[in-house]
Amino acid sequence: MKGHTSTQTTVRYPARGCGALWTAGTRPPSGGTVRLLGRARAGLLEAVRSPATTTDLARALGVTPSAVSQHLKVLRENGLVARERSGRQVVYLITALGAALLAS
Question: Which residues of 28-62 are buried (b: 16+ CB within 10 A; e: fewer)?
């Protein structure tokens, strides 16, 4: 076929963050954060330094998705984590307040 050209469409999306979920929960939170939030919530707050879904966090931390969801609700209500919809998933990420708490 003379004059026939083939084109390929490419859709690109910007990166939403640096993924390091496989290391979630391997960095222990500070003692002060654990005393303030409890071990489970402090560990979860540390894990959402890298944006992740409830299911991803449950798998990485070895707990049930419902337990993660309950802890995330409390952290979100207190401004330590935020959530964003990404297609069909909800991604949780640490806020500036949460990061400052972990840094102290």
Answer: ebeeebbeebeeebbbbbbbbbbbbbbebbbebbe
Burial of 5 (0-12, 13-18, 19+ CB in 10 A): exposed
DSSP 52: B
- For the record, the structure tokens of 45 come out as 């707050």
List pLDDT tens digits, range 1-16. 566 667 777 777 666 5
Phi, psi of 52 (to 5 degrees): -155, 160
Distance CA 46, CA 77 (A): 17
- pTM for this prediction: 0.69
Of 46, 50, 26, 23, residue with least CA distance to 34: 46
Crossing angle between the packed helical segments 96-103 and 39-47, to the nearest 10 degrees = 120
User: Where does 10-89 have alpha helices with state H?
Assistant: 31-37, 39-47, 54-61, 65-77
**Rg of the chain over all Cα atoms, to the nearest angstrom:** 18
